[in-house]
Write a structure and sequence with these properties.
Keywords: Signal. With 361 residues, this protein is mainly beta. It folds into 2 domains: 189 residues, Immunoglobulins (Immunoglobulin-like, Sandwich), CATH 2.60.40.10; 145 residues, Immunoglobulin-like (Sandwich), CATH 2.60.40. The protein has 2 helices and 25 strands. Strands 1, 2, 3, 4, 5, 6, 7, 8, 11 and 14 form a 10-stranded mixed beta sheet that branches. Strands 16-21-22-23-15-20-19 form a 7-stranded mixed beta sheet, with no helix packed on it. A 4-stranded antiparallel beta sheet has the order 10-9-12-13, with no helix packed on it. 24% of the residues are buried.
Length: 361
């Protein structure tokens, strides 16, 4: 009898310790008219923020009941500095997601401490299932990293940079417009604009197969100053991948001298600049699907730097692009070297510095 009491007491202490060391997250799941959505899967993901790319550490899931109520216990040892919490509510109809909560960024640990975790209500909207894959010129599967942006908000709502995939299923609210960009192995990034999902029939399923085929496209034109001058001491073009929403990361320029990838029996080509006539002749990668490049034209005359920006969308179907001219304006600021990786990394040094200043319209 004494042994039984000890066992019961030990079990009580264990359950008490678990209760003390766990935080309860709870609330209700509704549709947009505040009707209860039972059997909604609510997942709480614990993310590790201390890595170069945030990664999922672990997750907890449960289903809401007939009144829409859901509850999950999360070990307090996981809710610490360097961790964040992401809520994902989804309602399934068979194997398809028919309702989904708004896409939320992970909540940092400091925000969780201020959150009333017993009153977390989700209002789910109609959902769409997006199946993404990619193929090369011969139809073979290609692995890729990806990024999905809400066009109106302008920031990524889902991405994968660490582990490339061959296929990805993404669930999205159907009342928004999106740009889906993939970064294939050894190919030019391409994107797809996904609009008007609300017009799709239910269940809303979209299958997107990206064609990653690329081919060199020559781009020619000339540099001119606003006064008509077209002779310079130095000329260069820095190309940036222009992401959906017309966003660009200045530290991520495309390789320099992409013409070096265009090789034949007579050898490989090069980007050409004629400082006497102001003419240029370079290569970009034309794509079978949509892609955009921001071209930054830079020239030096005497001790003064000039520059201009233009967007371009090289495609295989469109072929070479001629007469793509730039009118350059004086640049301001302190001259700075922009280091670019050479298209052929085995070339001397592997990088090249292009000097420029801040752009002034």
């Amino acid at each position: 009898m004494k042994i039984l009491k000890i066992v019961v007491f030990a079990m009580f202490l264990l359950s008490f310790a678990l209760a003390v060391n766990a935080r309860t997250f709870s609330g209700y799941t509704y549709n947009i008219t505040e009707g209860a959505l039972n059997n909604t899967n609510v997942t709480i993901g614990i993310w590790n923020d201390e890595t170069a790319e945030p990664s999922l550490n672990t997750s907890f899931s449960n289903l809401s009941n007939a009144s829409g109520y859901w509850s999950l216990n999360v070990d307090d040892s996981l809710l610490i500095e360097g961790k964040s919490v992401k809520f994902i509510p989804r309602h399934y109809s068979g194997v398809y997601v028919d309702y989904i909560g708004g896409v939320l960024n992970p909540f940092p640990q400091d925000d969780i401490t201020m959150l009333n975790t017993s009153a977390i209500n989700f209002y789910l909207k109609e959902a769409a299932t997006i199946n993404i894959s990619a193929v090369n010129v011969s139809g073979g599967a290609v692995n890729f990293s990806y990024m999905v942006k809400d066009v109106k908000l302008g920031f990524p709502i889902e991405s994968e940079w660490i582990t490339p995939v061959y296929h990805k299923v993404i669930y999205l609210p159907a009342d928004r417009n999106y740009s889906i960009e993939i970064f294939p192995s050894q190919a030019m990034p391409v994107y797809y604009n996904l609009n008007n999902l609300s017009d799709y029939s239910t269940p809303k399923i979209v299958n997107i197969t990206f064609n990653t085929t690329t081919s060199p496209v020559r781009v020619t034109g000339r540099f001119n100053l606003s006064n008509g001058t077209g002779t310079f001491d130095e000329m260069n073009i820095i190309n940036y991948l222009l992401e959906p929403g017309d966003m660009v990361f200045a530290g991520e320029a495309m390789p320099y001298n992409i013409s070096a990838w265009d090789c034949g029996q007579t050898g490989c080509k090069n980007d050409l600049y004629n400082i006497t006539s102001g003419e240029y002749n370079i290569s970009l990668q034309g794509t079978a699907m949509s892609s955009k490049v921001l071209m930054f034209a830079i020239a030096k005359l005497g001790n003064t730097y000039y520059g201009a920006f233009r967007n371009i969308s090289p495609t295989i179907a469109g072929g070479d692009i001629n007469g793509f001219n730039f009118t350059l304006y004086k640049l301001l600021g302190t001259p700075t070297n922009i280091t670019l990786n050479k298209a052929v990394s085995t070339e001397a040094g592997g990088t090249i510095n292009v000097t420029a200043q801040a752009h002034a319209d």
